[in-house]
Amino acid sequence: MRNNRITLALSVPLLSLSLNVFSSINPSDLYLKPVTDPVVNIPVNENGSVKYRLTNKGKKAYRLQLSPIQGLIQETGKPKLCGQNIDLPPGKSCLLSFIIDGSEAIPMTKSGPVLCDKGWKSSDEAGYAANTCIQPAMDDRLSLNFVTPPKVTLSIKVDGEEKTTAKTNKMGCFASRKGCALTLFQNSSTQKSITLTNTSQERGKDIQAYGLPEGVTQDASQCKELMPNSSCTIYFKSGSTRTLSKAVEIKGTNTINSSITMQVLDIGDPYAGGIVACMNGGLQNLIAASVNNSHDMGWGSTKIRTFATSSRDGQRNTKKIISALGNNDDIPYAAQLCDDYEVDSEGNSPCKTGTCYSNWFLPAENQLYCLYDNAPWIAQFPQGDYWSSTEVADEKMSTAFAMLMISRAAGSATSYFKDNLESIRCVSIFNP
Fold it and tell me: Which residues form the signal peptide (predicted)?
């Protein structure tokens, strides 16, 4: 059976002392055991860590000091961690925690850490300067090896909403692109994912994400082992905490570290060329344009019935309106304005660079209600009447519903003549 106790590194005679608070080290009193593997393999110039637990099982207190080890930085100042000067009463323990600086440390085999008895001295009683040192049992001592850097490289494809709402970049967002992010939405049941491809000739192991935003969980079970030229997927699910932007590290035990940006958005946050406006599910998952598309435009002709009477589906209404009105005798109208609208990821409209967002439409009556409910969180939503795409289903053909936004009398739809000049805020559908 292996001896788990520490061994004396150096012993010198001590002065006679009547005090029993501190005295020379009895090796049967102190246990210095590794909490993590004492054999540490790290790539050159990278960092590692190692931890030991120091326990006093004797009946007297000890005052100990750590002997410096090149490249090892002791962590202190947190609960349960040993301090730089260790006063350890009987029956107590503390954790010796080290960061290994790969650029400064040197290789070592079964050496340390070493703790020396500082002794104790009183102004009114005889003291001593003890010089007894201890270290772990042989098999528990620190060994530090520098290894060849990992060779497994990963290509990361970030799957996001962009590939379904944009004219360009339809194959998804790649981690190498500036500003690319995996976007989640607060309390959403929809999982989002990243796809990893092993672009090297070695097998990747235990690949997962580190440093996730608060509340985000992952399923990396497909990426426990990744063969060369193969792919795997990590799935993520949001929690209830909003996070605008956070760097997330993607790595395995033998991979070159990669990273993506992750964000967890809520109503009012910028996204996909606009602002997250509604997350009530289905046709009420809406992105609103960042600003009003117009403050004074008509709905359309008062003499043509469009049959765009859905109170729920503005996208279908918009198509019916355009099919019925065409160019409307070259008079601009609300549905056409939204159908033509596009904006790029840099805020240019029409698009000039980056990702171009289209697929906008004039919201239906119930979709406009949702915008009204969330108007305080949607930027630049000035008070006024806003056109919906819902035509009044009567024989007059001359009216459609609009809604007064942001006032005490607001929140109910009213029929207006189609040639009235009202405000317009275009929307698009997304999948949170």
Answer: 1-23
Separation in Å, CA 400 to CA 183, 219, 235, 301: 36, 48, 44, 11
Which among 21, 23, 17, 18 is positioned nearest to 132, based on CA atoms? 23
Distance of alpha carbon 141 from alpha carbon 110, whole angstroms: 4
Contact call for residues 21 and 61 (beta carbons, < 8 A): yes
The CATH architecture that domain 154-265 belongs to is: Sandwich (2.60)
Domain ranges of the chain: 7-147, 154-265, 270-429
State the CATH architecture for 7-147. Answer: Sandwich (2.60)
Whether 154-265 and 7-147 are alike in CATH topology: the answer is yes
Quote the pTM value.
Answer: 0.61
Average pLDDT, the chain: 83
| Residue 44, number of CB atoms within 10 A of its CB | 11
78-87 confidence digits (pLDDT tens):
999 999 889 9
Neighbours of 153 (CB within 10 A): 15
Q: How far apart are CA 36 and CA 39, in angstroms?
A: 9
